[in-house]
């Protein structure tokens, strides 16, 4: 599915569904996507209260960003209740994050319940289990899938590995490859160290280098760093313009820019960056 025209911004923030006093902070954190969570942050006996409280997250006159919700797995009773509740919300989410996705049917099920005349929310899959990685090509081919998000904590718990970058490098690479093959964006997992800005910046830079479109966060102050890292710098933009100028001058033949050989792959990448920066098709 080609959803390039609907790609969201770079920083995503998630906030607990039972903490309405945090809703506005998340929405105004600078993140392009704010997600209210009624899954992992909510105990089983509080699920119904969270569904009710989450409605207020979307009842804002003018949303400063894309507003989403992380529901429970649609294959569970709680997930079924989530879908029924969301279908009756007066103000509905722009985006649905579906957790524990291991099959394209999960996406189809959510779309089948929520899609209606005038309402087709973006649906994103949270990829967080070994089984999901085994079936990634099928998941990413779901017609209504808007993108994928890496669930590092659940994945690491499943395979009993650490949360350090090297331990999860294979999973991140596999997710990027599958998402790119399907022409959908991938969002990296949050950095779990709340008070280590150096770790946040390092992980964000590594995620961008690997090909992630953006990164999640669990604290409002992380959004600014993520936005900064994933926004092309002036030097990067200038270099891309130099490559495109060299490509035009050489008739798209192999040439050199700043002492480095450049050809078609480099031309394409530079043009893609400038298309994004300049807002041209």
From TrEMBL:
One Gene Ontology molecular-function label: magnesium ion binding
Protein residues bound to substrate: 70, 128
Protein's recorded name: HpcH/HpaI aldolase/citrate lyase domain-containing protein
Species annotation: Streptomyces subrutilus
InterPro entries: Aldolase/citrate-lyase_domain (IPR005000), Citrate_lyase_beta/mcl1/mcl2 (IPR011206), Pyrv/PenolPyrv_kinase-like_dom (IPR015813), Pyrv_kinase-like_dom_sf (IPR040442)
Keywords: Magnesium, Metal-binding
Cofactor(s), names only, from the UniProt record: Mg(2+)
Domain HpcH/HpaI aldolase/citrate lyase residue range list: 16-220
Gene Ontology terms: biological process: oxaloacetate metabolic process
Domain of life: Bacteria
Keyword Repeat set for record: no
Binding positions for Mg(2+) per the UniProt entry: 128, 154
Bilayer-crossing regions: none
């Amino acid at each position: 599915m080609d959803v390039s025209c609907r790609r969201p911004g770079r920083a995503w923030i998630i906030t607990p569904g039972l903490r309405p006093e945090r809703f506005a902070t998340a929405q105004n954190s600078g993140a392009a996507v704010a997600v209210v969570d009624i899954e992992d942050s909510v105990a089983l006996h509080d699920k119904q209260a969270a569904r009710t409280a989450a409605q207020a997250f979307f009842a804002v006159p003018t949303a400063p960003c894309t507003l989403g919700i992380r529901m429970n797995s649609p294959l569970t009773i709680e997930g079924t209740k989530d879908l029924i509740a969301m279908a009756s919300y007066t103000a509905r989410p722009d985006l649905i994050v579906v957790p524990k996705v291991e099959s394209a049917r999960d996406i189809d099920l959510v779309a089948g319940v929520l899609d209606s005349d005038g309402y087709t929310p973006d649906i994103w899959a949270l990829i967080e289990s070994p089984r999901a990685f085994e079936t990634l090509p099928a998941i990413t081919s779901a017609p209504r899938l808007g993108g994928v998000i890496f669930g590092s904590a659940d994945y690491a718990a499943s395979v009993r590995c650490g949360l350090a970058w090297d331990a999860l490098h294979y999973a991140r690479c596999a997710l990027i490859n599958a998402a790119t093959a399907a022409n959908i964006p991938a969002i990296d997992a949050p950095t779990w160290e709340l008070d280590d800005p150096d770790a946040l910046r390092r992980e964000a830079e590594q995620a961008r280098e690997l090909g992630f479109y953006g990164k999640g966060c669990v604290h409002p102050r992380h959004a600014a760093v993520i936005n900064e890292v994933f926004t092309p710098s002036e030097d990067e933009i200038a270099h891309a313009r130099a490559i495109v100028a060299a490509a035009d001058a050489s008739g798209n033949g192999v040439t050199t820019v700043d002492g480095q050989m450049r050809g078609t792959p480099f031309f394409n990448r530079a043009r893609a960056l400038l298309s994004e920066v300049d807002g041209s098709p």
